[in-house]
Design a protein that fits this description.
The complex is a heterodimer of chains A (about 120) and B (about 160). The two termini of chain A are about 20 Å apart. In chain A, helix 2 runs parallel beside helix 3. Chain A contains five helices and five strands, in the order E-H-E-H-E-H-E-H-E-H. Chain A has one domain: 3-Layer(aba) Sandwich (Rossmann fold), CATH 3.40.50. A five-stranded parallel β-sheet of chain A has the order 2-1-3-4-5, with helices on both faces. With about 120 residues, chain A is of the alpha/beta class. The longest helix of chain B has 24 residues. Chain B has one domain: Chemotaxis protein chec. In chain B, strands 1, 2, 3, 4, 5, 6, 7 and 8 form an eight-stranded antiparallel β-sheet that branches. Chain B is built from three helices and eight strands. Classes of the chains: A alpha/beta (about 120), B alpha+beta (about 160). Chains A and B meet through helix 1 of A and helix 1 and helix 3 of B. Bound molecules: magnesium ion.
Chain lengths: ~120, ~160
């Protein structure tokens, strides 16, 4: 299980990495500080799950999701957006762009675990 | 919204109390509002986020060093030793969460705002000056780990 976490805040990347380790998804975690950096990382790496922030400089999460969904290699890789953007219209915008699930910061480890299991189809 | 009425301030107060309470597990209590023509918060580190949309301006979260380190330590689960890059990043992200939470409260009232990427200012007794014509208000808070304040500067957008 290879996961990439994309967030402009190194604090958030650390918190997400530590949380992933704690809930059993810590095998291999890649990182990127914005959408553009993430595209570069993904060019040379295959991942099973993408966890991305929305508000980032250079290329934000929404632009990144649109870009990655137009790539046949990643058109069905699960994407979870973890963001402070909690307004209903924002969530709808993100889902329309191709995000599979949505977490509003701050989040608990249980919520992250549940959302991961949902997008991986592990929940019954 | 000529004078920054309570309706424009309360969502930021609520968001600050919520976020600091949730991520840093610190209960903060609101102090007395100070209206400021040319606002001047005197603290050691501030996270600032620009606001656009139906209102234009900024929200700043300001801390003395002691409060910042205690809150960041609780937030990240790792002891913050000083106002270093990690602490600065964490203050920026906390400010992001507060602004995002306030944005959601406004959105539920039908008011649409956009928020920028956070900037963090570090410096002993720095001040945050709002553009001329933008009303600014400082709301101080008390907590077990020290004081902090938010500064809301907003004027009507388009
Ligand atoms: Mg961000």
């Amino acid at each position: 299980m290879k996961i990439i976490t994309i967030d402009d805040s190194s604090t958030m990347r650390r918190i997400i990495k530590n949380t992933l380790k704690r809930i059993g998804y810590g095998d291999e975690i890649l990182e990127a500080g914005d959408g553009k950096e993430a595209l570069e990382v993904l060019e040379n790496n295959d991942v099973d799950l993408i966890i991305t922030d929305w508000n980032m400089p250079v290329m934000d999460g929404l632009a990144f999701v649109k870009k990655i969904r137009s790539d046949s290699k990643y058109d069905d890789t699960p994407i979870i957006m973890v963001t402070t953007e909690a307004a209903k219209e924002d969530i709808i915008t993100a889902l329309k762009a191709g995000v599979n699930n949505y977490i509003v910061k701050p989040f608990t480890p249980d919520v992250l675990k549940e959302k991961i299991e949902t997008v991986l189809g592990k929940k019954d | 919204m000529p004078k920054l009425s309570v309706e424009w301030i309360n969502p930021f107060i609520e968001a600050t109390e919520n976020i600091i309470g949730t991520v840093a597990m610190v209960k903060i209590t609101r102090g007395k509002l100070t209206l400021k023509e040319d606002s001047a918060v005197e603290y050691d580190v501030s996270g600032i986020i620009g606001i656009t949309g139906e209102a234009v301006g900024s929200i700043a979260l300001s801390f003395p060093k002691k409060t910042a380190l205690a809150i960041v330590t609780n937030f990240t689960g790792e002891e913050a030793m000083g106002i270093d890059n990690d602490t600065i990043d964490a203050i920026g992200e906390l400010t992001n969460m507060v602004a995002g939470s306030a944005k959601k409260i406004f959105s539920d009232k039908g008011i649409k705002l956009k928020i920028s990427i956070p900037n963090v200012v570090v410096g002993k007794n720095h001040t945050i000056v709002s553009p001329k014509g933008t009303p600014s208000i400082v709301i101080p808070f008390e907590s077990d780990v020290g004081e902090l304040a938010i500064q809301v500067s907003l004027k009507p957008g388009n």
